[in-house]
Amino acid sequence: MPLEIIRADITTLHVDAIVNAANETLLGGGGVDGAIHRAAGPQLLAECRTLGGCKTGEAKLTRGYHLPAKYVIHTVGPVWQGGGCGEEALLTAAYRNSLLLAEEHHCESVAFPLISAGVYGYPKAQAIRVAVNTISAFLTDHELRVLLVIFDRAAFQISEQLFAGVQAYIDQHYVDAHTDDRSLQLRRMERYAAAKRPAFDQAPSCCEEAAPYAAPFPGTCGQSAAEGSESDLQHLLQQLDEGFADMLFRKIDEKGMKDSDCYKRANVDRKLFSKIRSNPQYRPSKATALAFAVALELSPEETAELLQKAGYALSHASKFDVIVEYFILHRNYNIFEINEALFAFDQKLLGA
Ligand code: ADP
Predict the structure, then answer these.
(1) Which of 285, 294, 213 is nearest to 244 (CA)?
(2) What is the mean pLDDT of each run of 10 residues along the chain (352 residues)?
(3) Using CB atoms within 10 A of its CB, is residue 270 exposed (0-12), middle (13-18) or buried (19+)?
(4) What's the rounded Cα separation, in Å, for the pair 351 and 280?
(5) 120 lines ligand 1 (CB under 6 A)
């Protein structure tokens, strides 16, 4: 099941469990802990008093009381002390023990805040990395919907190096596509005006020497519509190219992948994958088509081919496209890392 990164107040989410970044006393505090206690009401504190605290890296469960979530999983992340005091292992344990507890209580959906990334001072880019790595590793063999909840934009920082790389690529490609000089703008307006002119103004495009989309099918140039017989049409329909789903499943077989490996690596829901399996005509969204290209580690050319089969193309006029292209060109097929970058640049995510 997929991992989603969303911006929200965790206390408002309708999920089976929300995770609280608590302290070892479990008796309430500031930050997300305070917000959860305020929203859940005093019964939450009363139940917490019966739990006898919680050690760093461990997790305990209570009911959600007035929260829309059924349960609260209280976990304690490490206080950042420079990184040499086992902070990463403790933060990993906090996520993992919370996930195990959610599963033990048959939760189908669970939402996490960025544990330790507030007053506990864990560097944000590293805290996100630990969260994403631990959750995505868990999801490779567990069926659960996990939300990583970012409260304020400032809390979301990807590694400086990754950010700089993506930003440079956007500057080079996306910005270019949006900073045409005046002559290019005039030419584009002229093209637009020409396209709007009535058809009798123009030479038949299928006979123009350099017309880019002239006569896509052999033998159609010079034929009137009436002449295009039904049997021609039938013939063309029998020769349709391989569709999106066909190419997807062919590639899965060629790569020797299991279906489940593919949809998990694509961060795509199992139900959506079954829909594509059972309906060869299924037309995915662009984000889903790209998620599969990433899961299959397709080359830029193969990615273009798969996208085209779903009716899409990558464009330098779209920041989303430029960012995904950056990762594919760098052969970085980690969908969660791509999604971190997309989130950091305010774009929709791949897969989920
Ligand atoms: P810690 O003590 O583990 O650092 P904090 O509560 O100080 O815990 O912060 C953890 C993260 O929770 C921070 O990134 C903070 O921005 C975030 N946070 C605070 N309030 C909320 C909320 N209502 N919903 C989701 N996240 C929140």
Answers:
(1) 285
(2) 88 98 94 97 98 98 98 98 97 98 97 96 91 92 91 72 85 72 59 55 36 38 57 71 92 94 92 91 94 97 96 94 96 93 89 78
(3) middle
(4) 19
(5) yes
First vs last C-alpha separation in the chain: 9
- Rounded to the nearest angstrom, the distance between the alpha carbon of 152 and the centre of ligand 1 is 9
Predicted pLDDT at 288: 95
Structure tokens at 9: 């107040």
Tell me how far apart the alpha carbons of residues 18 and 74 are, in angstroms, rounded to a whole number.
Answer: 9
Distance, CA of 97 to CA of 88 (rounded, Å): 14
Task: Name the DSSP class of 266.
Answer: T
CA distance 138 to 98: 11
Which one from 33, 152, 180, 269 is the annotated catalytic residue? Answer: 33
Q: By three-state DSSP, how is residue 53 classified?
A: coil
Q: Which domains does the chain have, with CATH numbers?
A: 3-157 (3.40.220.10), 159-185+241-352 (no CATH)
Q: From atom 15 of ligand 1, which residue's Cα is the shortest distance away? A: 118
Smallest CA separation from ligand 1 atom 5, residue: 118
Cβ-count burial of 135 within 10 angstroms (0-12 exposed, 13-18 middle, 19+ buried)?
buried
Supply the pLDDT for residue 225.
Answer: 55
Contact present, 291 and 335 (Cβ < 8 Å): yes
Residue 73, phi then psi, degrees to nearest 5? -105, 115
**323 alpha carbon – ligand 1 mean position (Å):** 28
Angle formed by the axes of helices 335-344 and 319-329, nearest 10°: 150
d(CA 45, CA 64): 11
For this structure, is 321 an active site residue?
no
**311-314: long-range contacts, CB 8 A cutoff, minimum separation 24:** 311/283, 312/286
